Amino acid sequence: MKALEIIIGLIFTYFLLSILASILQEIFANFTSLRGKLLLKSAASMLELESKEAQQALIDKFKSSKVYQKYLTKSLAGKTLPSYLTPKQFVTVVKDMLEGEAPAAGERSLDAPAGDGGMDLEGVKDKDLRGHLETLKSQMSLNARDIGDEFQAEIDKAEQAIATYFDEMMSLTSSWYKRNVQTIIIMIGFAIAVGIDADTFAMYRSLSQNSTARQEILQIATDFVDSDRSANYQTTPLDSNATQEEIADNLGDLKTKLNTLISEDLEGAATPLGLGWEESDYQGKSIWDWLLKLLGWMVTALAISQGAPFWFDLLKLLTRSGGQGAQQPVTIKVETTTKEEK
């Protein structure tokens, strides 16, 4: 029973810290336009430009496009990059970028300064994609009345092909985003572990040596599952084309969840687990003590990266097997990815 109580105590801690990391990651993503930045990089990657300089130049041109600027929203962090564009929106932005310095009939691009010949296509390695882009670019020098039915059919075909390229790119972007989030979660998890001294080995020692602490954390964990407080921390992914008000509301909701988690649940678990820094924690420590503590923080960070749903499923299983009653199934869903547009 002692071993089970220790395991439940550690799992409950990992669960709470995983929620904390997920909320902090989502706040970070909102403030830094993480999804929007990845979208820009993905667009540059789709065009397969050969050099990093060319990719950065394309990203800068993409951001300065008048059409793209329409999709920016204002937030507390300034202008928030759109986390998603529909294929049609993407094609419109690309056409705006392709527009050169001096189209016929005085139709010069509003976002292209004097001397800017539009988007350079020489560095695009995919020949088919480059051909479609050149078709669109050649349209820029013509008035609408000069475009015949045959050429219009070519333009429509090029737009559809570019939209298809974009759809394929967005599928890859979703995978890239998940990998980026996983890396960020590990970094946030390590920062949390250091910040509150959530050393797995120290927590194990605290629980194994103190029966009162074990009983206290077991009761807290069981009450948490019984009362279904996990529902307080469910997060709904923000829609990709969310409005300014929706972004602000989502950020406010995340901050509320963060404050509740810290003030109610983490604070109650901190004492029996020995979380938090005290003077005795860093005085008289040898280099080996610090190396062991560093390893303990790393173990905690890796545990946090497994995600709250993983630890909550284990917590439910163990609290039931520990004779705490047959709870009804409870689910918690912490999501950090945007909804995919169809």
SSE map:
Elements: H1 2-32, H2 34-46, H3 52-64, H4 66-69, E1 73-75, E2 78-80, H5 87-98, H6 127-139, H7 149-195, H8 200-209, H9 211-226, H10 244-273, H11 279-282, H12 287-304, H13 308-321
What do you see in this structure?
The protein folds into 2 domains: 2-33 and 174-321, no CATH class; 35-170, no CATH class. 66% of the residues lie in helices and 2% in strands. The chain contains 13 helices and 2 strands. It has helices at residues 2-32, 34-46, 52-64, 66-69, 87-98, 127-139, 149-195, 200-209, 211-226, 244-273, 279-282, 287-304, 308-321, and strands at residues 73-75, 78-80. The chain has a two-stranded antiparallel ribbon. Strand 1 (73-75) and strand 2 form a beta hairpin. Helix 2 (34-46) crosses helix 3 (52-64). The protein is elongated. Residues 100-117 and 323-342 have low confidence and may be disordered.
Helical fraction equals 55-70%
Secondary structural class:
mainly alpha
What's the N-to-C terminus distance? 51 Å
Q: How large is the share of residues in beta strands?
A: under 5%
Task: Tell me the number of structural domains.
Answer: 2
Please give the number of β-strands: 2
Which regions contain 5 or more consecutive residues with pLDDT less than 50? Answer: 100-117, 323-342
Largest sheet features: 2 strands, antiparallel
Output the helix-strand order. Answer: HHHHEEHHHHHHHHH
